Amino acid sequence: MDLYYTSTRDSNVKVTASEAILKGLATDGGLFVPETIPALDIPVNQLKEMSYQETAYAVMKQFLTDFTEDELKECIRKAYDEKFDTEEIAPLVKAGDVYYLELFHGATIAFKDMALSILPHLLTVSAKKNKADKEIVILTATSGDTGKAAMAGFADVAGTRIIVFYPKNGVSKIQELQMVTQEGGNVDVVAIHGNFDHAQNGVKKMFENQKLAAELAEKGYQFSSANSINIGRLVPQIVYYVYAYAKLLQYGEIEEGESINVTVPTGNFGNILAAYYAKQMGLPIGRLICASNENKVLFDFFQSGTYNRNRKFVLTSSPSMDILISSNLERLIYQITGKDCSKTAEFMRMLGEEGAYTVSEEMKKKLADFAAGYADEAQTAESIRETYKQTGYVLDTHTAVASHVCREYRRVSKDTAKCVAASTASPYKFVKSVMSAIDKKYNDADELELLKELEQVSGTEMPQAVQNILHAEVLHKKECKADQMEQTVREILNI
Q: What is the CATH architecture assignment of 92-110+232-461?
């Protein structure tokens, strides 16, 4: 059965999966959502024998119904190949009483690789399907990981350009080096003087600017997105949780049908929304535990029903979560309004103009699947230190937030269900914060010199992705103010 997509802000919109992927964002500024969430049509008992690639096909074919079997399998084959440094693609590792789903074994050592590896292939197939005759300009804001993963995926892909904006001084040294050394004739990277929310707002404004779209079209360009606002980024993330459940079953850690909890370190809300969609598909997930850092706008929302971005922006050791406007929450808001586009649009208008909105009590009751917690900087460091001391396993800062929140949730709720935590980045990506948490003697050490120390401490080899950037040439030096993003894009594209 064909599955169509509508906009969170306009129920009259009806597009195929490939059209939604190609557009990235609906013309009205809304996000594309499936008209219904399909049911998982393969028993989990059968899934437990499948590879990651086979699981990806079983899940994604349910959502991308206008892709042929050959088209989708070819996209999956190209995406999940030898660029991953483990055969399993996403190993499930037990440390203490938590199962860590390691999503960081791709080319840029962060979970964004998992979904961004496949997006260029989905996008190029979508362009052919829809007879797109324009060069696709991927316009992306990043809080550190999406940018590099998108650039790595789209570098020198025919018919595409990619422009990435990241917050200057708002990412780790390794993250910045990964971006500014990225090769590719179709790649541009710009540091903005502002935070991630400034970058994300600037990108969304350009998507919604119809005058700019017309000028782009005249020059032979059209915008698309690599952020998780693109349904082509979101759907591949659903696979993580189906695969993790199947592995727990295969390893004999759970019985068939046994409910598990999932903890996700959360910034833009895409990764945990994917877990929510997996639950809607019928996967036995109990609680979806939303883990925040000190920018705890989502924690406060789940506690109070009020989403309020009017607060101090905090730079933390988990920069990919340093976000005050979680774009993908709009998809959940749409769901809990009963798919009411006008209500959703009104909430988003209030967020844009007043910086806050409050959901009704009836809507709040529909959030019962979610639990929320947060970790401050001291708790994040303690989580790294204690996990290492007790198990020898080294967490990155984002996974440490999830680990702390998971344990706190268990302590308070007395919920004994087994828990999978999304491990979203390699500790090598945030080596200074990780090593300083393990031992304060590393506080004054040079960040890059600590990479060798981490090899000794973790017993793991430095990833090739890190080795590659240590002596790479800096290729991108563009910077701009937050209000100059459109002007910068015009200059890059010569409009």
A: 3-Layer(aba) Sandwich (3.40)
Question: Is 435 in contact with 442 (CB distance < 8 Å)?
Answer: yes
Length of the chain: 495
Strand partners of residue 289? 263, 371
pTM to 2 decimal places = 0.91
pLDDT of residue 431: 95
Q: What is the dihedral of CA 345, 357, 360, 31, to 10 degrees?
A: 30
Higher pLDDT, 322 or 359: 359
Short-list 19, 8, 128, 4, CA closest to 63 = 4
Two structure tokens written together for 475: 């290729």
Cα–Cα distance for residue pair 309/421, rounded to 1 Å: 26
Does the pLDDT at position 63 exceed 80?
yes
Residue 403 has pLDDT above 80, yes or no: yes
Q: Which positions are annotated as active-site residues?
A: 112
Per-domain residue ranges for the chain? 92-110+232-461
Contact yes or no for 122/115 (Cβ under 8 A): no
Name the residue among 253, 364, 346, 244 with its Cα closest to residue 300.
364
- Written as one letter, the residue type at 439 is D
- Through-space distance between the first and last CA atoms of the chain, rounded to whole angstroms: 42
Strands 98-102 and 92-95 turn out to be antiparallel
Q: CB under 8 Å to 142, separation ≥6 — which residues?
A: 148, 150, 164, 165, 166, 171, 179, 196, 199
Q: Which residues pair with 7 in a beta bridge?
A: 10, 32
Interhelix angle 270-280/231-250, nearest 10 degrees: 60
How many whole angstroms separate alpha carbon 293 and alpha carbon 433? 14
Closest listed residue to residue 111, CA positions, set 416, 365, 421, 376: 421
How far apart CA 447 and CA 84 sit, in angstroms, is 25
